[in-house]
Amino acid sequence: MSRLMIIVGSVRPGRIGLPIATWVRDSVAARGDFEIDWVDLAELGLPFMDEPSHPRLRTYTHQHTLDWSARVDAADAILLVTPEYNHSYSPALKNAFDFLMQEWWRKPVAFVSYGGVSGGSRGVVAFEPVILQLGMVRVGAAVEIPFAGRLVVDGVFTPEQKEIDILEKLLDETASLVEPLRPLKNRRPAAQLG
Ligand SMILES: Cc1cc2nc3c(=O)[nH]c(=O)nc-3n(C[C@H](O)[C@H](O)[C@H](O)COP(=O)(O)O)c2cc1C
Q1: Structural domain span for residue 38
Q2: CA of 154 to the centre of ligand 1 (A)
Q3: Which of 145, 146, 162, 173 would bridge 114 by S-S if both were Cys, CB 3.0 to 4.6 A apart?
């Protein structure tokens, strides 16, 4: 079974990212075709990127980086549940990505975004150069949830039908990319390590 890492991209107290990501996790689990690695960045507690060397060298000096590296290595695909902050991405998410390099190479990456009127899509667009630089392959289907706060009541997110339908498409597409991309994992050419 392929391993899907679900990353909760917001870390602030009272975040709606957690209930939204919980819905995503439960929906993935109900399908039964992915093993889930649940990464709540608030729980993971990575500091601001504190490695002395460029991540391309993989000469990590901190246990938190070694653990994070092994965890991302083990993932076959990544699903980001992410807010939009000031028309851009969550800094906690960017920080977690900056710790590593090779580990992200040629992994499918899918987005569930949320926010106000734009459904978090500006945050996703701002993150695209990051995933491109890291050699990831973006899943086309994307769940975008406008005014997501209205769908969270007492800490529980209740999706509308369109979100349910698009999440299924997103997961189908993610699943279809895992096997074709698997032979390319961890094979970033040296010339592109800069
Ligand atoms: C610092 C900050 C900046 C925000 N900027 C935007 C924004 O540019 N566009 C938007 O639609 N919503 C914006 N919002 C509203 C968020 O979409 C909303 O607060 C959402 O709940 C944030 O996700 P979180 O609760 O998981 O942190 C912003 C919220 C915060 C806290």
Answers
A1: 2-192
A2: 19
A3: 145
pLDDT at residue 179, rounded to an integer:
97
> In angstroms, rounded to a whole number, what is the distance separating the alpha carbons of residues 45 and 99?
13
115 lines ligand 1 (CB under 6 A): yes
Which residue would you say has higher pLDDT here, 186 or 55? Answer: 55
For the CA of 20, the nearest atom of ligand 1 = 26
Report the CATH number at residue 9.
3.40.50.360
Cα 138 to Cα 109: distance, rounded to the nearest angstrom: 5
Q: Ligand 1 pocket, 63 CB below 6 A?
A: no
pLDDT in the model for residue 192 = 58
Nearest CA to ligand 1 atom 8: 86
pLDDT class of 194 with cuts at 50, 70, 90 = low
The CA dihedral of 21, 12, 88, 108, to the nearest 10 degrees, is -30
The confidence score (pLDDT) of residue 191 equals 58
CA–centroid distance, 123 to ligand 1, in Å, is 10
Percent of the chain with pLDDT over 90: 95
